[in-house]
Amino acid sequence: MTQLPALILAAGRGERMRPLTDATPKPLLHVQGKPLIEWHLEALARDGVREVVINTAHLEEQFPATLGDGTRWGLRLHYSMEGRDHGGALETAGGMTKALPLLGDAFWVLAGDVFVPGFRFEADAAEAFVQGEDWGQMWLVPNPAHVPQGDFALTAPGRVLRKDAAPAGTPAYTYSTIGLYKPAMVDGIQPGEKAALRPSLERAIDAGKLSGRLYMGPWVDVGTPQRLAELNAATPAR
26, 115, 191, 203: which one has the fewest Cβ atoms less than 10 Å from its Cβ? Predict the structure, then answer.
């Protein structure tokens, strides 16, 4: 079974991580002995992904200098350089749109600043998504302390809904920043346009084209120096 390519989002400035991100992009900060983004690269390679696009903007020259062409992981790395081409980050939907020529008809997307060592990029999940009609499938996680209200509602059959439009009692969860997507998710966004993902997700919800799964394994949004320090003080992940 052929795996889909993946896009790792790594263009952000990481304001909440300053001063650490003044000299180093957040995905290149070390977690338990190696750059955070390397945990993703190792997981993608383990699960059969071979083509990986990394979108960059802040201190973007450090990514190819640090990661090279991906050979050491058995990957082919491509860089979608938003800083060089557009003067800065295009946000998530804008970054997806710019990278589409490198991604094809369906692809994984994951943020470079989350730590989720146990996640499996399952080829059968990717294949089922390709065969289906949805524009996207997102993995949601139990709400962390910093997002107690959650982002989206998830029904028992696996449909993602707006929280304010979901039936009473439908649980709300937090977006893990991992998902499977098709180009239809970002229809109407022009290459080089700055665009957040949330409006595109809500458009897909309203069209009945967004599914979801709940991930219960370890997951950390490495969004503050404190969370980074806590991860590095914890028992190393395998």
Answer: 191
